[in-house]
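Components:
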Amino acid sequence: MVSLQAYLIVSLILLITGLVIMISRKNIVAILLGIELILNSAALNFVAYSKYTTNNLDGHIFSLFIIVIAAAEAAVGLAIVIRFFQIKETIHIDEVSELREEIAR
Amino acid sequence: MNYTISTIAPIFLLPFFAFVINCVLIKKVPKFVPWVSVAGIVGSFFFAAAIFIDFFTVYNTDYYIHKVFNWIDLSHGDNIFKIDLGIFIDNMTAVMLLMVTGVASLIHIFSTWYMKGDVRWERFFVYLSLFTSAMLGLVLSDNLLSIFMFWEIMGFCSYSLIGFYFEKEEAGNASIKAFMTTRVGDVFFLLGILAIWAVVGSVDIPSIYAAISNGAFEGKTVFGIALASFAGFCIFCGTIGKSAQFPLQVWLPDAMMGPTPCSALIHAATMVAAGVYLSLRMYPLMYVGELNTLIAYIGGITAFGAATIALIQKDLKAVLAYSTISQLGYMVLGIGVGAYNAAFMHLVTHAIFKACLFLSAGSVIHSYHDKYMPEMGGLKNKLPYTCIAMWCCTLAIAGVPVFSGFVSKDRILGDALYLFLQTGEGVYAIPTILGFVGAFLTPFYMFRMMFLTFHGKNRNKDKYDHCHKEHLTWNQNVPLLILSVFTLGFFFSGSLTGQGIISFAKEKKEWFKVLIEPPVQQRLEKFSNVTSQPFSFEDTRDMSVIPKSQYLKQSGFAGPGYDTSAEEEYYDEVHHAHVLGAVASVIIVALSVLLAFAMYIFGFISPSFFYDKLSFWVKALKNKYYMDWLYIDVLIKKGLLKLNNLLSWFDSGIYDRYAIDGWAFINRQVFKASHWFDRVIVDSVAVDGTAVGTEIFSLVTKSIQSGYIQKYIIVLIGAIVALSMFLGF
Amino acid sequence: MENTIAGYFLNFPIFQAIAETLGVGLTAFLIFFAFAGLFTVILATVGGFGTIAERKISADLQARIGPNRVGPYGLFQLIADGIKMISKEDIMPRSADKFLYYLAPFLCIFGVLCTVAVMPFSKNLILSDLNVGVFYAIAISSLVGVGIFLGGYASNSKWSLLGGMRGASQIISYEIPVTLTIMMIVVIAGGLSFNTLVEAQAGMPWNWYIFHNPFTFIGFFVFFISTLAETNRAPFDLPEAESELVSGYHTEYTGIRFGLFALAEYIEIFVVSAVSVSLFLGGYQLPFNILEGTLPNELLQFGSLFLKTCALYYVVIWVRWTFPRLRVDQLMSICWKYLTPIAIFNLVGTAIWVVAFDGQSMFQLFFGSGAH
Amino acid sequence: MFINILFFSASALVIASCALMMWTKNLMHSCVYLLGVLIGVAGLYLTLGADFVAATQIMVYVGGVVILMLFAVMLTGGKDFQSKTQQLLNLLPSMGNKYTFMWGGGVGLVFAGCLTYFFMHLFKVIKVQEIDNNSYSPTIEKLGELLVTDHLVAFELSSVLLLGALVGAAIIARPRKERPAYIDDIEHDHHHDEEHH
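Structure:
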C-alpha cells in the first residue's frame, strides 16, 4: 500500500528539480523543460490528493486541464523562442531583458 | 378563430417585412421589388379577411379583442411610469383592416402597370410597403402613442411620395407644404395625447373609454377650458391636418404632384381617412367635450367650399382632389351631427370609389399622356373599361340611388336634417344647408368631369390618335372593375336603396348598422373594469352588455336608422327626417345632373354664361378662396419672417453681444488668475516636487528590477518561503 | 481481467491447478508474460514476412519473379535476411550523438510493440482490455515519431536530419485526422475499449462500422490514407525518400539497428491495418458463432482478423508500388486542408446521425431492426 | 503488490530521469530524459487509478510537447552555444555553470526544506483517508460526465485557449518577409561601435 506521502515526495523531487533547472540553466528551452517538470509535479499532486482525500474525480479534471495548459504554453512559448532566435540569433535568457531600464554596468 | 400573435401580427408585419426586404433588394435585384411588395400586401389581405370573416360570424356589437405588450417600463417602487403597446380589434377595426388591405392590394397591382419603367419605380414600391404597414399598424394599435408613431411614418411616406419626382421644383415644394401643414395638426395631436395622459395616466383606447365611462374628465379644466374639450379639440386638430379640413386643407390639392397610384392610396383612400378614423375612435371624447357643433361647422364648410372649387378645375386629378376634401368634409360633418355609423360607412365607401376614381384617372392620364380636361373628350371609345369603372364611381359619389354613395352620404345628410328638426336650433341649420348645397354641387362637377373626359368630341386629334385602344389587362383595368363592383350600395346596407326595399341576406342585411355602433356612455360600460396589464388578453366573444333598444332610448345622439320597433315614436321622427332627406337629395341630384347634361351634352347653357355672371366668385374660386395667398404671402412672408428677423436681431444684437461676450470676458479674467496659480503653485511646487520625489524613490526601487528572469524567480521563491514562515509559525 | 487472455486461460483446469499453488495473481502474470513474449515473436515473424511480401508483391506488380532462391518460392528469404542483419558490422558515425543514436531504434520498436497490448486478436485473445484502449494505442504509438526524429538527429547527417524532421512533422500532423476519425467511431460505439468497439460490429458485414452511415464510409478512407502517412508508407514515404534523401532518417544505421527500424515499420503497418479492421471492418467478428466459447472459436476469430488484416496489408503494398510520391507542401496541404476538415465534418455528421437516428445504422433504417 | 512494484519502478524512473536532466550538459539529452520523466509520471498516474489521465499524459506530452521541444532545440542550436555578442553576462555557458548551480541548488534546498517542514506540520493536523486502491474502477465515463456538467465552462474555455495558442503560435513563429527596422538599427550601431574600437 503506497501512502500519500510517497507521492508527495516524488512530486517534491520533481518540483525542486524543475526549480533548480529553471534557475540554473541559461537556455530558454531548458527553462521551459523545467516548467514542464513543475507542471507535472502539480498535476501529480492533484491526482494523488484526489485519490487519498476527496475521493472524487475533480483532481483528475484539474490535472487534465494542467496538461492542456502545458500543451498550449509549450506551443506559444516555443513559438516565441523561435521568433526570438530569428531576431536575436541567441536564446540566452539574459538577452531577454530589454524592457528594464539600462543600468550602467 | 383563435387569436394569437401569429394570426394578427402578419397583417402589419408582412408589408413591413416586404419593406425591409425591398430595402435590401433594391440595390441588388430591383426587378423583384414590386412583386415582393405585392406579395406582402396580398398576404396581409388574406389575414385581414380571416379576421373580418370571424367578426362577421360572431356578429356581436360588443365584441372586441385586446392584447397588450410591455414596451417601456421605468417604474421603480411607487413611481409608475410605463408605456404599453397593444392590439385592439373591434368591429370597426376589422372592417377597416379589410378595406385598407383590399384597396391597397388592388392599388399595388395597378401600380405595377402604372409605374413600370418610370424613374425610380422600384423605390415607389418600397415607400408603398412602408406606408401600408404603417397604416395597418395604426388601425391595429390600441393606444394613441403608437397611433401617433404610425401617423408620423405615414406623414413621412406621404412626403416622400408627393416629392417622388423631385426633379420638378413644384413637386418638392408640394411635398414640403404637405409635410409642414400636417405638422401643425400633429403638434396639437401630441398636445391632446399629453392632456389625456395627464387625466387617464395611460393612452390606450380602452383605458380612455373607461375613464370617460367613469367620469374622470368631469370638472377638470385647463386654461379655463374643460379638459375634455381641450383634449378633444387637440386631437380633432390632428384630424384637421391629416384629413385636410377647412383651415388646413391647402396641402391636399398640391399633393397631386405625386404619382397617381399614391394619390389613390394615400391622398384619397386611406391616409386621409386615418384622420377621420382617429376622430371616430375618440368620438366619446368629442362628445364629452361638447365639440360637435364646431366639428359639424368645420365639416360643412369644408364640404361646401371644396365642392365649389372643384367646379372650375381643369386638371382631372385636381377635380378628384377637391372632391376628396369635400367628401372628407361630409365624414366630419357626420361625426359632428352624431351620424357615427354613417360617417364610418362613408369612410369605407368613399375609400373604395375614390380609389377607383383615382386609378381610373391614372389609367386615363397614362394612356392619354395628358391630364388637362380641355384637351380630352370622346375617350369612351378608346378606354371603354376605364369609362365603365369611372362611371360606376361617379354615380356612387354623386349619390345616385342603388350606389353606395347614396347609402352613406344621404344617411349623414338625413341625420343632420334630423338633428336640426329635432332640436330646432338655428346653429344646426347652416351645416345642414351647406351639406345639401354640396350635395347639389357634387354630381355636377363629377358629371362635368366625366363629360369633358369621355364624351362629346375630342379636342386634340394628335393625342387622341396616339392613344392606344384599351384591352382588358390584369393589372391595368381589372383592379378598377373589381373596385367598381363594390360601389353598389347593397354590400353595405343590405338593400339596394338603403331603405330595406330589396334585401339580399335576411338575417344580416343590416350588418353595417348592427356591428358599428357609437361608443356612447352605455356602450362604454364594458370597458369600465379594464386594467390593461401587460401581456393581458381580452376576448369578449360572448359578451353583450346592453340590449339595443334600451341603449337607444338613453342616447340622445345615437344616430337614427336602427331597428327600433320598441321605440315607435323615435323611429317615426327619424324615419320622417330620413325620408325627407332622401327625397330632397334625390331631387337635388336629379336637378344637378340635368344641369350638367344641359351644359355639357346638349349645350343649352354655355359655361361661359356663369363665368360672366359670377366673375367675382369665379375669381375667388380660381384663387382657392385666397387661402394659399393668406398662408404663404401674408402669414409666412409678412408675419413669420418679420418675427424671425426680430428674433434674429435680438439673438445676435442683444444676447450674443452682451450675455455671451460678457461671460467670455469674465472667464478670461478668471483664467488669467488661475493660470498664474497653476504655473507657480501647482506646476512648480506640487507637480515637479512629486516628480522629483518619484524619481528619487524609483532610483532606489529600480535596482531590484534587473530584467533577469531568474533573479525574479529567486526573489519569488524567497517571498514564498518568507510568507509561509510568516503564516505557518 | 474478465475479457483478457489471462482471465480466459485461468478458466482451464490445468491453470487453476497451477493457480492453487502459485496464487492467482502470479499465475495470471505468468500467462500474460508468456503471451506477451509469444506475441512479440509472432509479430516479429509477421514483420519479417512483411518484407518478403513486399518484395514478392512488388515483383508481381512489375511482372518480375522476385526472391525465389532460398526455400520454396523464396519463403526463407527472411531467415537469410535476418542472419545477414545480425552478422553485419554495427557502424556509428564518429560525430554522432552516441546515446541518442542507440536509443532511437528501441524507442521505435517499443512504441510499436506496446500498441499490441490492447489489440483484440479474438474475443479473449487480448493481452489487456484497457477501457481507454484506442486512446492508449494512439498515445503510445506516438513514441515512434520521437524515435524517428531522434534517429535522424543523432546521426549528425544532412539526409538523416531532413528525414527525421519530415517524419516527426508528418506523424504529428496526421495524428489529427486519425484521432478525429477514431472519435467518430467512439461516438457511435460509446466506449474507448477495443472490445466495446468490436462487439458492436458482430454478425454480417453490413453491421461493420464502415457501413454504419455515409460519414463512416468516408471516414474509413480518411483513416486509411492517414495511417499510410503515419507509417511513412508510399505515397507518403518522404522521411525515407530514396531518390531525395538517400535513405532518410536511417541512412547512417547499419546491421541490427537498421533491422529494428525496418522491423518496426513493417510491424506498425500490420498493427495499423489491424486497428483499421477492428474499427471499421468488424475486427475479429465472424458472421456465425457456432463454436461459441471454445478454443477453436477463438482461433477462427483470430483467423478472421488475420485474413482481413492481410488483405489491407496487400492494399498498402499495392498502393506503394502504384502511386508516385508527394511533395512536402502537398503532404501538409492534404493533411490540413483536406483530411482534417473532412474528418471534422465526418465527426459532426456522425454525431448528428447518432442523435437523429438514435444510433441506428443505415441498414437498420432501411430494413428495420430485423436486419441485425 | 503489482501496484507497489509499478510505483517503485515508476518513481525510480522519474527520479533518475530528473537527476539526469539536471546533470546533463546536453539539451537534447535533457529533452530525452524529460521523456523518461513524463512516462514515469504516467506510470504513477496508473498506480493512482487515473488511467485516462495517464493516457492523456502520454498522448499530449510524448506525441506533442516533447517533439515540439526537440524541434525547438534543433532549430535554435541544440547543444551548448555561446552568444554571438560576447559581452559580460553572455559569456556564461547556456546550460549553467558552478555559480548558477550554486544559486539554484541553494534556493531548491531552502524551498524543499520549507515545504517539508510545512507538510510535516500539515500531516500532523490533517487525517488522510486510507482508501483501498486495489479496487480498480474505470474513470473515463465519470470524467466525461464531469467535463460536460460541472466543469463545462472550463472545458469550453480550454478549447478556446487551445485555439488561441494554435493561432498565436502560428502567427508568432511565422517568418516575416522583411526584417523589422530596429534590427537594422541595432546592427548599424554594432558596426559603428566596432569601427570605433
